[in-house]
Amino acid sequence: MDKLFINYYEVGAVILFGIGFVTLLLNNNLIKKIIGLNIMDTAIFLFFIAKGYIEGREAPIIVGSFKGVNKYINPIPTSLMLTGIVVAVSTTAFALALTIKIYEKYGTIELDQILKKGDE
C-alpha cells in the first residue's frame, strides 16, 4: 500500500488510461471515442515523464559549471514525449477531419447508425 502513495503519478496515469480505454470501448459517438483516445495519450505521457524524473536531480540545462552526469536527469524521455504529443495532436486533427467527412456522408456520428446505413 505504501508503494501506491510513493508512485502516485504512475497510479494516476494507470487510472487515466483505464478511463480513456473504457471511454473508447463503450461509446458509440465518434467524438467521445476521440476524447477517450486523447485521455489514453495523456496517461501515457504522464507515465513516461514520471518514470524519467529522478528525485534530487536537475534539468539538464547547464548554467555556470558542469556538476557531473549524476546531477542531471535524462532528457531523452522528455524529448520523446514531446514528439509523442506532436503525433497525438496530428492524429486527433486527422480523426476529427474524418469525423466531419463521415458526418457529411451519413448525417450522424453515432457508430451503430453509421454501420446500419452502410449495410443498406
UniProtKB/TrEMBL annotation:
Organism: Clostridium malenominatum
Record key words, sorted: Membrane, Transmembrane, Transmembrane helix
Subcellular location: Membrane
Transmembrane segments: 6-27, 34-54, 80-100
Protein name: NADH-quinone oxidoreductase subunit K
Signal peptide stretch: none
Family: Belongs to the CPA3 antiporters (TC 2.A.63) subunit C family.
Record Gene3D superfamilies: 1.10.287.3510
Alphabetized InterPro entries for the sequence: CPA3_antiporter_subunitC, NUOK/Mnh_C1-like
Membrane topology: Multi-pass membrane protein
